[in-house]
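Sample pair:
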Amino acid sequence: MSMAGNLRKVTSLGRVDGLRRVAGLARRRGRVDLSHPARSPLGSTVVNCVTYRDGVRVPGGRDLVETVEQVRKSGDGFVWLGLHEPTVQEFEGIADLFDLHPLAVEDAVEAHQRPKLERYGNTLFAVFKTVCYVEHKELTATSEVVNTGEIMVFVGPAFVISVRHGRHGSLGPLREELEADSQQLAKGPAAVLHAIADHVVDDYLGVTDAVQQDIDQVESDVFAENGARLDPGRIYQLKRELLELKRAVAPLNRPIQELATTPIRVIAPEIQAYFRDVSDHLLRTTEQIAAFDELLNSILQAHLAQVSVTQNEDMRRITAWAALIAVPTMVTGVYGMNFSYMPELRWKLGYPLVLVVIAVGCLVLYRGFKRNGWL
């Protein structure tokens, strides 16, 4: 039976023995060595699997199950297992080994979750939205500015499981940074969770700085000489991409605040102080995104006002030229009527006089319109 079928079965049973049945199904699988991708039956899904003791990486090569059991028995160290877009079948044995809740497993496999923090007994399940800035030569009405992914993290007393979805947000450099700081890594799985949260939020700051450059460019284009001719689709596209960034960042405020203030069994009080720093950075990012949204609204309104002003100027010019044309039209219209008795019809200077009257009238109107800025 597939993991999805097991999950549905457990949900329908709603009892502890349902969980035991699923666990029994998973235990029938043979033990495999997941410590190295080349020996993993999960292929490229397992990015890395490392044991840490006192903040120092322990040489691998053993069976994952034996390693976990030894860490649990000794009560010293923890295992960090990194996965990338695992399937239900690939995650089945891992979920059983670490006694992960089926609902959290389902979220980790299916992805597309909101940032959140959930507790299942001694296990903490956190969801982070990762973002990256998509480079582009010029912002257009179809440009992709922000690309999002996800990182799910299971944190227990002796393990960390990170599940990454998306083409970006690799935790390899982060792992190297932590291994270089053995004192921080020695604080356990909670230190890894903090490092991941801090890494994700730092990426938010980098993306918002890049988005600000796009906003500044659009603002400059709007207030340029030909700003009224700017394609409004560029502004709308930037607002849509900013909305995607907001959906990734804003919901994370509550989980980070909970990690920073609420007593949690697997989070030591000394680690909570670090989460308060992450919360400050996240708050800054949230406020910056809100300010960007307001600024884009103002830019859009300014662009629409410029378009309206330009249209009014065009209408004034058209009206002025129509008035100039109306003078000769009126005069020639009068003399175009076929009456036998009309003034100056037989006067030799009548025609030149009419031309002079038309020219003077048009000149007077032209100077008046020019003086008032209509032409």
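Residues 1-43 have pLDDT under 50 and may be disordered.
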